[in-house]
Specification:
The chain has 4 helices and 4 strands; from the N terminus they run H-E-E-E-H-E-H-H. By secondary structure, the chain is of the alpha+beta class. The longest helix is centred in the middle third of the chain and has 16 residues.
C-alpha cells in the first residue's frame, strides 16, 4: 500500500466508521478498486501523481462511469487530500454511508 492508502485504511478498517465493513483491493468486474464498502455500495479510489495525465483521467472517468452503472457510488481523493486533510476525507465518506 502507498502511504496515503495506509493512512486511510488505518481509519476505515475494522468497522471504525459507523460499523461499516470496508475491503481493500476489491475486484469488481474487470476493475480492482482501492477500497469498497458493500453495505453502502461505496467505492473509494485514491489518486497519486500518475492520475493527472490525460490518459489516466480518461481511464478513471470510464472506470467511474462503469462502476456507477453497476449502482455503486464512487469517491475519488488525491493523495494530498489524505495526508493533508484526513478528517475532511472521513467526513465526506461518512456522508455517503447514510
Amino acid at each position: 500500500m502507498t502511504y496515503p492508502e495506509t493512512i486511510l485504511w488505518s481509519r476505515i478498517r475494522l468497522k471504525q466508521l459507523k460499523g461499516y465493513q470496508f475491503y481493500r483491493q476489491k475486484p469488481i468486474t474487470e476493475y480492482i478498486v482501492d477500497f469498497y464498502c458493500p453495505k453502502a455500495k461505496l467505492v473509494i479510489e485514491l489518486d497519486g501523481g500518475r492520475h493527472k495525465s490525460d490518459d489516466s483521467i480518461i481511464k478513471d472517468t470510464l472506470k467511474d462511469g462503469n462502476l456507477v452503472n453497476l449502482g455503486l457510488k464512487v469517491l475519488r481523493f488525491n493523495n494530498n487530500d489524505i495526508t493533508d486533510n484526513i478528517e475532511g476525507v472521513l467526513e465526506r465518506i461518512l456522508s455517503k454511508l447514510d
